[in-house]
């Protein structure tokens, strides 16, 4: 029986979850992999901190890089987090030492993925990262191996459980973003500083990785258009429902004639679409391939258990010698694909204006849209206001270009009857 | 660059789809796998039949076993179908010849899976079968590798697209089973002889494979309880909707204190559950693991493109040397788990009776249920009938034992006021 000796850096929630999994599933893993997986070395910021997990007789390293050099360690598991710093130093050191790496670090892969893939391949070392995208859902393996016979046309998903939880709560309770965020923080579903999640950055990191896997191109985090959910209002959610939509924060990567579009933003999607029913902290990824057509994968996108499940799968792959090129293709064959600018995006748009309720306002707005060649699919104006009060006007456009919509919204915002900045939410055709 | 020379036996829809995939994705596969995949030999029943696919200069074998022995063939792809006969002979010959096998044959694996796994392992030959379950959805890989850190508690799914199409159409149109089946046959969604699909056998084959993968036990097709959808009526579908359920043909394998329950039957499921929204010919599989919690995988379960996608993934795995034990564990470690008898199943039940509309009938029925310790969660009696006509009475039970329910239904059927055999549909708690 093989012995795969693990060095784990980072002993937070996920590290503790992994230690628990390795202990609890010891017999099962032995039978499945014909191997044991002792944790022989660990590293974390604060040695004195009480740990959830019983780590046994593992050697302690204050410096994670020392863990990579520890001759007792066969496989390095990086659970520190952060794009650079100690996590990156550890992974580089492990690769240089010829040791397989398992990491859950989306920020690092989004920003340094291609370079790390090159280093790992040059050294002949596997670099696995199932836990970096969509937690327990084995989507990295699905794209890299399970769907490898396909040319992928679009991949998109709900990649941030905090945002999905907040939007689901807003939907169910009718409350505003800030109220639901406060509650989510109290419940531990959102961080004290929630910006990484609610501003879409976390989802964008994950999207950059999915894009590289789906299209076999270098990771290009800088090319991701990122919008979060702070501007989604209870009113928009209510209108979405009336119009047969749901609002979800989607991360979308799509081939266009100009290249690859990568974007994270709130979307209106058909309420009947399967992904519209992925609620709460659940994540989902939809991959569309030319032979397989549409496939969807859903599950828990975060948490100790699901993330440990993904890390364990990577460790088992390494034990079995099941390797695949980091982004589905050897790094030197990854082809840079042009970033398709969002201004060229074509789609339908939901536009909400708060206007004075007086004759001629709709005519003025319609004229602006006409001048930008944007045609209106539907228009809703509900209720009447007393003088000086704003009433909402909601428009759904036919397919239009983002640049035209932006120009139209700027012009509309300058109209005297428009009392608040216009709100726009893209409609994603599923 | 490696050359993996393929021998394909069976040139129906899937064989043609695979040939098209290999031609169309030639460049992509070369970049991804650093290999080419020429079809060097083929075999099919009728040589004179015109073929969708351009097969190039492949050598023709009338006898599939000869294809296995063809020295030009590196990997054997079995797309003949059928549990035994030429398909089984081919796979056995290929394994004996030390050649990796890719098969889409669920019936063969359900009935001979464990034995073939043993043969393949003894010979050190990979035996891959992603296409055998849920078409293009990479669920075999997900269970065998992606979720391998988990103890699976339950796996279930919609595994037959024909049944799901029929139930979806019944749901949408309010029509009866036979009318929808006729239409499905005309559209090519159902076979001329539909019994394999609509009687649940196809789903049961796939379930037997999923069970072995999920629980690392030998395949045990004989232990699967199988019911099809012929008895689902438009009336039941209408009641399901009223009660907040959907009716789906589910294939379910579950750990119970007594062993493993394997069953295929129409289920009432919560209309809000994600799998309730998997409609038409789509398939879905839900796997519940102790660490990952619930994951769901959905996509097209049949058809040339999706099935070819799954077969291609297996071929790419073989090219890359990515191997995993056939059922997630070496065959000699698969542990026989007792079959948990359906009579011991505990769950909620939907019961529909057609009764004479006269006083005392409900009291009689309630007394029978009481005698079997079955408590009623809700009861619906709608509309009044003229003398002699039957009215439906619908009951939802609290949790009860299958054996008790069966006894109660038999007793109820004997009641003079009950005019048709009682209908029962199990409610699956998701």
Tell me about this structure.
Two copies of one chain form a homodimer. Chain A has 430 residues and is of the alpha/beta class. Chain A folds into three domains: 2-99, Rossmann fold; 139-300 and 331-342, Dihydrodipicolinate Reductase, domain 2 (2-Layer Sandwich), CATH 3.30.360.10; 345-427, Alpha-Beta Plaits (2-Layer Sandwich), CATH 3.30.70. Helices cover 37% and strands 25% of the residues of chain A. Chain A has 14 helices and 19 strands. In chain A, the strands form three sheets. In chain A, strands 9, 10, 11, 12, 13, 14, 15, 16, 17, 18 and 19 form an eleven-stranded mixed sheet that branches. Chain A has a six-stranded parallel sheet with strand order 5-4-2-6-7-8, sandwiched between helices. In chain A, strand 16 and strand 17 (390-397) form a beta hairpin. The longest helix of chain A has 18 residues, at 106-123. The model of chain A has no long low-confidence stretch (mean pLDDT 95). At the A-B interface, helix 1, helix 2, helix 6, strand 14 and helix 12 of A face helix 1, helix 2, helix 6, strand 14 and helix 12 of B.
Helix-strand blueprint:
The structure is a homodimer of 430-residue chains.
Chain A: E1 2-3, E2 6-9, H1 13-24, H2 26-33, E3 35-36, E4 39-43, E5 59-61, H3 64-69, E6 75-78, H4 85-96, E7 101-103, H5 106-123, E8 127-128, H6 139-146, E9 152-158, H7 161-173, H8 177-187, H9 195-198, H10 201-215, E10 225-226, H11 234-242, E11 245-256, E12 259-270, E13 282-289, E14 293-300, H12 304-320, E15 346-356, H13 361-371, E16 376-381, E17 390-397, E18 400-401, H14 402-414, E19 423-427
Parallel strand pairs in A: 1-3, 2-4, 2-6, 4-5, 6-7, 7-8, 10-12, 12-19
Antiparallel strand pairs in A: 9-11, 9-13, 11-12, 13-14, 15-17, 15-18, 15-19, 16-17
Helix pairs in contact in A: 1-12, 4-5, 5-10, 7-8, 13-14
């Amino acid at each position: 029986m093989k012995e795969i000796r693990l060095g784990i850096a980072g002993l937070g929630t996920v590290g503790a979850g992994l230690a628990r999994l390795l202990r609890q599933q010891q017999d099962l893993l032995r039978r499945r992999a014909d191997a044991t997986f002792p944790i022989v070395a660990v590293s974390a910021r604060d040695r004195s901190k009480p740990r959830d997990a019983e780590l046994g007789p593992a050697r302690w390293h204050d410096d994670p890089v020392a863990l990579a050099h520890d001759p007792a360690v066969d496989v390095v598991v990086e659970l520190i987090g952060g794009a650079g710093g100690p996590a990156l130093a550890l992974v580089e050191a492990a690769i240089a030492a010829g040791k397989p790496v398992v990491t859950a670090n989306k920020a690092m892969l989004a920003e340094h993925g291609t370079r790390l893939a090159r280093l790992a391949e040059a050294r002949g070392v596997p670099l696995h990262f199932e836990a970096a995208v969509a937690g327990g859902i084995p989507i990295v393996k699905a794209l890299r191996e399970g769907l490898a016979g396909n040319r992928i046309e679009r991949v998109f998903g709900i990649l941030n459980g905090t945002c999905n939880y907040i939007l689901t709560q807003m939907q169910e309770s009718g409350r505003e973003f800030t109220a639901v965020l406060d509650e989510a923080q109290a419940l531990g579903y959102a961080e004290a500083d929630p910006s990484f999640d609610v501003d879409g950055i976390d989802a964008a990191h994950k999207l950059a990785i999915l894009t590289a896997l789906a299209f076999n191109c270098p990771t290009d985090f800088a090319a991701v258009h990122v919008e979060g959910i702070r501007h989604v209002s209870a009113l928009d959610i209510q209108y979405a429902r009336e119009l047969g939509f749901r609002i979800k924060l989607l991360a979308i990567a799509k081939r266009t004639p100009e290249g690859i579009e990568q974007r994270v933003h709130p979307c209106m999607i058909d309420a009947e679409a399967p992904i519209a029913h992925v609620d709460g902290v659940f994540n989902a990824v939809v991959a569309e391939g030319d032979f397989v057509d549409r496939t969807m994968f859903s599950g828990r996108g975060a948490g100790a258990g699901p993330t440990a499940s993904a890390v364990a799968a990577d460790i088992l792959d390494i034990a079995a010698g099941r390797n695949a090129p980091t982004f589905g293709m050897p790094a030197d064959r990854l082809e840079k694909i042009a970033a398709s600018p969002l201004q060229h995006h074509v789609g339908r748009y939901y536009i909400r204006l708060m206007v004075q309720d007086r004759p001629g306002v709709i005519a003025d707005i319609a004229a602006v849209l006409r001048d930008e060649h944007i045609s209106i699919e539907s228009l809703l104006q509900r209720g009447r206001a007393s003088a000086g009060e704003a009433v909402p006007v909601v428009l759904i456009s036919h397919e239009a270009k983002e640049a035209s919509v932006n120009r139209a919204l700027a012009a509309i915002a300058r109209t005297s009857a428009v009392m608040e900045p216009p709100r726009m939410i893209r409609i994603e055709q599923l």
